[in-house]
Specification:
Among the domains are: 2-95, Orthogonal Bundle (Helix Hairpins), CATH 1.10.287; 186-280, Alpha-Beta Plaits (2-Layer Sandwich), CATH 3.30.70. Helix content is 54%, strand content 21%. It is built from six helices and nine strands; from the N terminus they run ααααββββββαββαβ. It has a five-stranded antiparallel sheet. Strand 2 and strand 3 form a beta hairpin. Residues 78-117 form the Mechanosensitive ion channel transmembrane helices 2/3 domain.
Length: 283
Amino acid sequence: MKEISILTQIDNYLKDFLGGFYNPVFKIGKIILIMIVALLIARLGKIVIRKVFEKQKNFKFKMSDKKLDTMATLIASVFKYVIYIWAILMILSDILNLKSVLAAAGVGGVAIGLGAQSLIKDTLSGFFILLEDQFAVGDLITIDTMTGTVEHMELRVTRLKNYNGDIYIIPNGEIKRVTNHTRDNKMVIVDIPVAYSTSLEKVYEIARKVCDEVKQEFTVFTEEPSILGITELGKQSINLRITARTYPNEQWGVERRIRMKIKEAFEKTDLEFYDRTLITKEE
């Protein structure tokens, strides 16, 4: 009873001190407090969710790390929006009369409904992308003409980061066609175009040596580099091809290394590429 009496005295003192400003100041303070609490809860929830999913990575029987990261990001996003909606409702209930809100609902209901359609579409699309495992955080994908690594997958949007560091923010409901460059092993194809006058015996010797050296340098192969053979007899050149298979996203580094080694070997033996151009094809 004593505590209640003290609180009442403080309340009365503030009313006397602030006068007509008491209610507005109190409401503004309450709104600020609700916003701060909502932000803190959302941030804390994100940290807890990520820690829970990080522990899951240590289990013997588990999903892939990428899928766990994607689920953690998506669930954290859902939690964040739930907290924000709760905060908005708390603020509205404090500053607006319930009857006024209900009366305005008839007018604003149509507008809110139209906005909710887009939100529901994006949200459902996000869940289906996760359910069907179309892509996950860390995957390199192409959506329409946009290519990048999946940085975040949230409740409404997917964020891609391209090689230049640009961020693409794409609503999940607008994702129609996706090319995932990270799934399955990748083919390495390096073509060596040489003139008809070039000694093929020397070219084969160089190619074999390069294949052996690259095998020792990289541990990313599912199929080691080998000489496929002559793949084209052009009007003025012969095309010799080296192939291999690597884990996802490792093929480009291998291709660059093979090209560099072949170029260095050609320079040492005075051999020349046809038109001095090394062509790389992708499958």
